[in-house]
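Course assignment 3, question 2. Fill in each field.
Student: A.L.
Task: Predict the tertiary structure for the chain below.
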Amino acid sequence: MTAPRQWQDDVLAGPGGAMTDEVGVITGPLTLRTTGGPDGRVRLEVQYTDADEWYTLTGSPVAHGDPHALHTAALRAIRAGGGAVAPPAPA
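Answer field:
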């Protein structure tokens, strides 16, 4: 079994923040964690930077795709704000 691939970066959410399944919109300094699982599903989670709780970025997990490309696209979306959600997997 292949170990999951994971990326994690701090990001400042733009106006309107990022939408989560658990608590709705979160704003301010956030950390995005993206994990590509062996089943091809990519999980995107956010937290207030240095907090303990992680929240599912709405639209996650994303089936298939390049986990690193999805991580990069999610960072761009969160920086833009507007209730950012998980980007779709590239076709």
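Instructor remarks: The chain has a mean pLDDT of 93. The longest helix spans residues 67-80.
Grade: pending
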